[in-house]
Amino acid sequence: MSQYGYSKTYNDLVSPTDLTVAIREHAYRDDFGQHSWITSTEMDLVIEKLSLSKESKVLDIGCGVGGPTMFIANKVGCQIIGVDMEPNGIEAANKSVHRNELKEIVSFKQLDVSQELPFSDQQFSAVVSIDVIIHIQNRDVLFSEIARILQPRGVFAFTDAGVVTGTVTDEEFAARSINVLTLFHSPSYNETILRKAGFEIIDIKDTTDNLIQIAGGRKEARLKFKDELEKLESAETFAREQLYLETILKLATEKRLSRFTYFARKN
User: Which domain holds residue 162?
Assistant: First the structure.
């Protein structure tokens, strides 16, 4: 399994079946190609906080199939690069670029962001990362790299659904982490390493409700198509994925594991 572990999901979106389309229609109230816990309202907030304009140069770290990347491009019309280590995600993202005729301002690259980023100092005016930081080891190194490639006073926005805000059992941590490496931490951890990397905190928003909305939608959509999914995945895989979503919902609604959106400016 790769670091992010979303290869199968991304492959389904390269050539989506009628079942994939039907599940997404039921799972997301506002489907713009995301595979995360973000809504269009939150994306609008990200664009506002990043102060994006047509002159902006943006990097999207962990872009997946390019949903948030394309959302920004369509809304703002700025230059944006999306990077992800999953080749299936990049393939689906590139198809979306051509379908939307945005290849003049949008590009995607396969890239392992746990390594040194292959970009010049001060190349970008903004960096965004949607629900990916939770899966990246050595995030202190990544944050320092982001500070390097950001222009002075550039803004970094990211979401993190792994903030421990209550008591969580070993079994619950395991159920929450079935698909991929997942890193959980205390509420102050991100703020501490952001400051060490040379950022000042602009704002932190509790966006757990968005996670609850989308996780609930995904759980109910999968249940609606249970028979079809069990034939496709196996009954065991279906049950495991439902437990994953049920665990996310339980921990979030009980405020024991939360999701926050962070906005930080390079000093």
Answer: 7-266
- Residue 2, in any domain of the structure: no
Beta strand residue intervals within 142-256, DSSP E? 150-164, 199-206
User: What pLDDT is recorded for position 25?
Assistant: 86
Q: Which two tokens stand for residue 142?
A: 């990544």
How many angstroms separate the CA atoms of 93 and 234, rounded? 28
The pLDDT value recorded for residue 3 is 38
Q: Going by C-beta distance under 8 Å and a sequence separation of 6 or more, which residues neighbour residue 224? A: 26
CATH number of the domain that 234 lies in? 3.40.50.150
Which residues, including other chains, have CB under 8 Å from residue 138's CB and lie 6 or more apart?
114
1 lies in some domain: no
Q: H or E stretch including 110? A: strand 106-110
Total of domains in the chain: 1
For residue 224, is it within any domain?
Answer: yes
Decide: residue 264, CB within 10 A, 0-12 exposed, 13-18 middle, 19+ buried.
buried
Ordered mean pLDDT values, 10 residues apiece, the chain (267 residues): 47 69 86 90 96 97 94 97 93 88 94 93 98 94 98 98 98 93 96 98 98 96 95 94 97 98 97
Question: Which helix or strand (DSSP H or E) is residue 83 part of?
Answer: strand 79-84
- Enter the DSSP assignment of 181: -
